[in-house]
Every structure is written in structure tokens, then in C-alpha cells.
Sequence to fold (63 residues):
Amino acid sequence: MEKVIGNCYGEDFKKSLDHMTKSFNRLSKRKAFKQAVKGHFRSLEITYNKNIILIILIFIFDL
Fold:
């Protein structure tokens, strides 16, 4: 599963990353998530271009 949070400017990066981390933590504590996913790891990819716009992706792999 891949979650794309979208683009953000460099000054919003920390806020966006904090939001994404807290959201994932809430998701992973849900009963439905625990029942559907027996094991997982989270990977973060950050890409930027010349305009310093960041594209943040979270990959969640079911083991």
C-alpha cells in the first residue's frame, strides 16, 4: 500500500511529516488494522525538485 500525502513547501515539511506520523500511529492502533495486517514496516520517501517542493510518500508493506 502506498500513501501519497502530496506536495508541500520546505517550510511546511516538519508539520506535514508530524501529521503523517501521528496519522499512521493512529491507524496502526485500530482494531481493524491489527486484524488485517499481521506484520508491517513503514518506509518514508522524500523527493524534491528545483522549487524545493517536497513530495512525501509512505509505503506500508504487509508481511
